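user: Please supply your own:

assistant:
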Amino acid sequence: MMKLNISVKSITIRLKINLSYVRIIPREAKMRLSSTQKSYLAGFLDGDGSIYVRLKPNDTYKYGFQVSPYIIFFQSSKEQKNFERLCSLIGFGYMRKRKDGIMEFTIGRKEDIRKFLSMVKPYVVLKRRQVSLMEEILKFKDTVKNKNDFEKLMELIDSFREINYSKKRIKRSLTP
């Protein structure tokens, strides 16, 4: 517990801050992983992970859709401490506990996804095609300049249909 005193003219504010909830870890320090750790993360991604890009309808975006890439790891909350320790190796992303007792660790920022994929790509076995497709989509997304380009991006995103299983997938298209 840290005590912090702040004085502004004649007003004094005393705050008690519990630092057990705060992680002060430089991002880059967490990325220095051994090849064993990288291969373990890759194996975890292969077995209990998901790589996909979601097109979310959103009228505030130029072409009517938000492009949302994700890498997500899943684990039973019974193994929460081990799961947290494993995910803390990555150094970015966030964790949540679902109502059904499953823990999810999500990497959703484009640059974080790129960093993570470059780190584990040599060790991924089962999701090699998804890794390559995600890299291709992220690269192509940066080059979209018109509606035609965006339609090509949508086709690339939809190609996850061929390699990922989904019960609820909806094929999206731009309306004229």
